[in-house]
Amino acid sequence: MSKQSFALNSRLLRPVIIAIIFLAGIQTLLTIFLTTSGGKNLISDIRSRLSVENGKVSDELQAASEGVQAQISRMTQSVSDDLSAKLQLQLEQEKKATVALLESSLMETSRNMAVLLAAVSPQAIWDRDTPQLTQYVKMAHESEHVVFAGFYDGYGKRLTRYLNRKSDLVKELMKTGDGDNTLSRIVDAAKKHERLIVIEQPINPNGAVIGQLVLGVSRDSVIQGTQKMESGFNALIDQSISSVKASIDSGGAQSVAELLKRLDSIQRNNDSARESIGKSIESSSDELVTHMTLVSVISALVLVVVLVIVLSVRLLRRVNVLTDALEDLSAGEGDLTRRIKVSGNDEITEMADKVNHFVVAIQMIINDVQQLSRHTTDVVSTMHKGTLQASEATERQQGAASDASSSVAYIAESVSEESKSVAETLKNVDRIREETTQSSVISRQVRHDIEVLVTDVENTAEVINSLASQSDQIGDVLDMIKSIAEQTNLLALNAAIEAARAGETGRGFAVVADEVRMLASKTQQSTEDIEQQIIELQSGTQKAVQAINNASEIARNSIEGMRQSDERLATVSASVDNLHRMFEEITDMTSDQSSRAQSMTHALEQIVAEAKMTFEVVDHAAATSRELESLVNELDQKVERFKV
């Protein structure tokens, strides 16, 4: 206590003690200021770097969002163009096939009608039966496809005059055609008209042409059917493209909205993490400043007390020696290899030894800290490389899964559109099958009517043959009457001769014989006239029978043609049924493929979501490892200032 009083009362040591206390206070304040300033600068630097990195991440995410939107727009346009091209190609193919089928059916029906009319008209042409021919023309006009019809004789002279003068098309043909009569002008104009088909059917029952049937058939049903089909296909194409665009736009908008939502979430998480890291570093810095302040104050107090004790015991020389040694130690700028060299066996020497031990302890601590810092640097570097590789791998996995999901979604859309197209084609096949069935029914009905007509014609031929046979019998009777008349005439002549021989008594008998002879002559003359008429009747009957037989042969040929047409229609119907079954199988297959593609799309979407979550976790770990690496590097720089 006396030594302390001596030190405090010493005029030599008091300024030194006061100066030491002042310097210790200044050093403590400077240490606190430097520590606080360094901590604040470190916090500011970390926050600045985090802000810069966060801005870069935001820019990259925004660019990725814009790229996704552009890719969706390009994909929408590409899908629309491909779909439009495929549907247009299919429309052209269906249009050509339908036009060919309709025109073939119309041409075959019209040709059969012309053949039938030509088969039943010879008798009316021979008889110049214009009303009957006109009736045939009116029957032809009952078909909605027939625009005009007319008969010509073998010399090209018109036999009928009936025309549908209420038809605008007929009026147009009458104005634009060339010819010496109305029907000729109409036929001339119809041959040049794209909406009409002109059928010229020769009438040759006996091998010689006795006339011609001209039939004008309208192609309006074919054109209207084609236009209706094309309009329906165009509407379907527009609807399909609009639906695809709407679906892709809707899906793209949802995807972009979800992406933007996730980007905002990532941005908020980054901001929150940045604030949390800043607060954590600031809290750690404040705690470090507090600890260093406490250590500095305690060290300063210990140093002042030690100095007071030493100065109280030793002389100023020893104090100066110790002061010089401490100044040498403090001037080393972190060189922990230097030691305080003071000889003696007093408190100053012990204090110097303690200081040297303290420096050794600090040296060992700093050495351990350096080794731990280097090891931590290696570990952090390895961890950072691993997180970078994991981040790249998850990013590639996410991209691959996203591409696969987009591809499968596109395949699912394509399969769905193909399924719709197949369903529409299946409806068209159903309509074609119904039309084929109706055509087959009509053909069978026409064949039945022709068979009935053939039966009637054969019955008529039998009646005419019976009439011819009866006329032959009448000829026999006439021959008998003629023979009787000749014998009567001969008997009358003999009677007249005998009456002449008898003289006056036989005159009355001669008058009677003369009357009998005149009656026999008239009977013979009448018999010859009747025989001539019977010969003409038999000739006409033979011609009628020949014409009827020719008509029957033509009708049989028509029946055979109708039968072949029925067989072809049956073949077409079977092919259409097979095509219908094939399209039903295709529809089932496309439905199954669409269902599987949707399931695959759902699974890939889940994979993409999991990959995104994995990428976010790995990216967060990478950011944390980068921050840890930065802090370790800064700590290593601080520790490297000490020389051990």
From TrEMBL:
One GO cellular component term noted in the UniProt record for this chain: plasma membrane
Protein's name in the database: Methyl-accepting chemotaxis protein
Record organism: Oceanospirillum linum
UniProt KW keywords: Cell membrane, Chemotaxis, Membrane, Methylation, Transducer, Transmembrane, Transmembrane helix
BP-aspect Gene Ontology terms: chemotaxis; signal transduction
Subcellular location as annotated: Cell membrane
GO molecular function, a single term: transmembrane signaling receptor activity
Limits of the HAMP domain: 313-367
Record domain Methyl-accepting transducer: where: 379-608
Stored PANTHER family: METHYL-ACCEPTING CHEMOTAXIS PROTEIN HLYB, METHYL-ACCEPTING CHEMOTAXIS PROTEIN MCPB
One Pfam family this sequence matches: MCPsignal
Ranges that cross the membrane: 12-34, 288-311
Assigned protein family: Belongs to the methyl-accepting chemotaxis (MCP) protein family.
